[in-house]
Amino acid sequence: MDAISSSRVNLPGSTLRNSNNKSSLPCHQTRISMSTGCNSSVSQAYTVSCSNPTDKQTGIVSGSYLHGPLQKRDLSGKTFCSLGVSTYPGTGSASESHSLAAEERVGVLLLNLGGPETLHDVQPFLFNLFADPDIIRLPRLFKFLQRPLAQLISVLRAPKSKEGYASIGGGSPLRKITDDQAFALKKALDAKEMPVNVYVAMRYWHPFTEEAVQQIKRDRITKLVVLPLYPQFSISTTGSSIRVLQNICREDAYLSRLPISIIQSWYQREGYIRSMADLIEKELQSFSRPEEVMVFFSAHGVPVSYVENAGDPYRDQMEECIHLIMQELKSRGINNDHTLAYQSRVGPVQWLKPYTDEVLVELGQKGVKSLLAVPVSFVSEHIETLEEIDMEYKELALESGIENWGRVPALGCNPSFITDLADAVIEALPSATAMTTPSMDSEEEDRDLVGYAIKTFFGSILAFVLLLSPKMISAFRNHLL
Ligand SMILES: C=CC1=C(C)c2cc3[nH]c(cc4nc(cc5[nH]c(cc1n2)c(C)c5CCC(=O)O)C(CCC(=O)O)=C4C)c(C)c3C=C
Ligand SMILES: [Fe+2]
């Protein structure tokens, strides 16, 4: 088998046109394939296959989420960029497998958030994030304000974010860690006699989804498993990345015929739960009285409206995930108290409660002396573990009376975790299904673009008149800084 090489291609002069998507899945192992995934006019039917073959349901991803953003064609919601790619290019080895059909070339596409690599990248990264209609969910009538609003918020937020990234070395470690995970996953699949190419697609920074997809086409991949690096599904993370992928597939003959299997969430997999329990068990041993430590799960928050109005399964999945980890710990004789809180809220709306900062203060006041923080929405170290938890929350906890502080590291390339992801890929492969995609005709597309340009022009003027009023600015500043 050939060694893997990681390629980064930088194409000078390429343009960045930024633009910019419920299901509590009770089954133990979940494979979801979109049978009409990229179809803009037909209701999407999802086939959900569970490890128990009799437990097969159709249409579980439904409600306002399915009939909302996933189906919508939103020209302002796409990122076209060919500035960078980080992939593990084909070695031809996919056709050598005994377990695969002679000409099968399997790809695995890892989806992740992406992060600014330098301080200079922070504002444009934030623009990409806030321009995502799954991050700032404007009512339909106000969609035209998305990009001007993103510009304004990103400029206002950038100084605070820059400070955060400066304190963790001047940029996000996400790209490197995700590349390492891709490499480790390829190795684990090789070891299981399932040679694949692994690709990385970031949502808000390089390498963007478009670049990964171009590489997949160049490698003539014949089956693709899409694996988001978020254990739990949220509209704002996995949903958003899948929507971008669907938009790309819809417009490409090759991709619309490519059999694809999407693993929407995997928080309930035994391997993941065991790996998390291993980390917690190990870290508890660093306290002088491990049995007295409060296990403090800190999850990334989302606005309450996502869960209560848009059908985001994130909170249900998070609570089930914590329950499963605690059950696993109990089976090992570890019976510590635990709690779950939500961190990293941004902006003036209500986010999922309780809030991490408020709970830390309450626990200190109640006399909790030892606390082990467990980041649980993400499997890499990033700004919210390295800066928010390790610096801000630690300081707050110590000021509030907590004396012994610990933090479980993110899973990263933990071998048992990566092996489990490899199993998830193998299990998902048989349910790969083509996304059939009638694209817009070119006349329709032209009309759409003209309408979009007009709306953006007038939208920008209106937004700046409204938003640059001193009152609005100070309201934003109070919430963003
Ligand atoms: C404003 C809305 C946001 C929502 C909703 C949101 C959901 C969400 N995010 C993650 C994971 C990560 N987010 C990260 C950075 C980040 N996220 C937001 C905003 C929202 N996130 C902002 C503004 C930023 C930038 C940093 C900052 O200014 O605070 C990252 C870090 C990436 C890195 O570079 O290290 C991660 C990871 C999840 C899991 C989630 C919903 C479940
Ligand atoms: Fe975030």
TrEMBL record:
Chief location: plastid
Keyword Transmembrane helix: yes
Enzyme Commission identifier(s): 4.98.1.1
Any one Gene Ontology BP term: heme biosynthetic process
GO cellular component: chloroplast; mitochondrion
Region (Disordered): 1-26
Highest taxon listed in the record's lineage: Eukaryota
Pfam families: Ferrochelatase
Subcellular location: Plastid, Chloroplast
UniProt enzyme class: lyase
Keywords (A to Z) from UniProt: Chloroplast, Heme biosynthesis, Iron, Lyase, Membrane, Plastid, Porphyrin biosynthesis, Transmembrane, Transmembrane helix
Membrane-spanning parts: 449-468
SUPFAM superfamilies tied to this protein: Chelatase
Record-linked PANTHER family: FERROCHELATASE, FERROCHELATASE-1, CHLOROPLASTIC_MITOCHONDRIAL
Family membership: Belongs to the ferrochelatase family.
Entry function: Catalyzes the ferrous insertion into protoporphyrin IX.
Protein's recorded name: Ferrochelatase
Record organism: Actinidia chinensis var. chinensis (Chinese soft-hair kiwi)
Lineage: Eukaryota, Viridiplantae, Streptophyta, Embryophyta, Tracheophyta
